[in-house]
Amino acid sequence: DAGVIQSPRHEVTEMGQEVTLRCKPISGHNSLFWYRQTMMRGLELLIYFNNNVPIDDSGMPEDRFSAKMPNASFSTLKIQPSEPRDSAVYFCASTWSSGGASEQYFGPGTRLTVT
Amino acid sequence: DAKTTQPNSMESNEEEPVHLPCNHSTISGTDYIHWYRQLPSQGPEYVIHGLTSNVNNRMASLAIAEDRKSSTLILHRATLRDAAVYYCILRDIAGNQFYFGTGTSLTVIP
Lengths: 115, 110
Description:
The complex is a heterodimer of chains A (115) and B (110). With 115 residues, chain A is mostly beta strands. Chain A has no helices and eleven strands. Helices cover 0% and strands 54% of the residues of chain A. In chain A, strands 2, 4, 5, 6, 9, 10 and 11 form a seven-stranded mixed sheet that branches. Chain A has a four-stranded antiparallel sheet with strand order 1-3-8-7, with no helix packed on it. In chain A, a hairpin with a 3-residue loop joins strand 4 and strand 5. Chain A starts with a strand and ends with a strand. In chain A, 37% of the residues are buried. In chain B, 0% of the residues lie in helices and 45% in strands. In chain B, a hairpin with a 5-residue loop joins strand 6 and strand 7. The mean pLDDT of chain B is 92. The interface between A and B is medium-sized, with 26 and 26 residues.
């Protein structure tokens, strides 16, 4: 299996622009997680889906952030408009079960820089 | 929310065992204890998890205290490739996840 695939790997954009990050989970996995990592705040869970349905989005920082999972093999995280403080590495992870015993598989991350 | 507490950093000599502690005093009876590690410039990687009993796998061992308020990740022979940030996190039985925290940065000395 190719693992969790994220694109793009690097994104540089100007403040105010729309940014879309993409994630393809491992085939057969039914839960998907979006994280953000910064030096100041560490690794934060933004939102997670189970069977394509958002379960907990309490970590989404504000209305500028939105996430969708239109089908089991694709998810997007959108930031509109982007701000410099959104600069971070964004990780997507998937797992085969929504239960607490399942391990998560992380993608390589997207490094976002907003100037 | 149940959270975990870990030392910020630890050092180990190469080929010696490493014991990485984690405190989770507010853990509930159905919370699983998970450990992940993150190598430089990579995404986190699953290491091991457990509920009540000690667990072993090819990467490490997990020792869980009898009262479950703490756990220890054991790397039996540290190698340079084990230098990473190690995170201890809790997940409840429904899969709801708590915080990664700051983790423990492990330095392996040749």
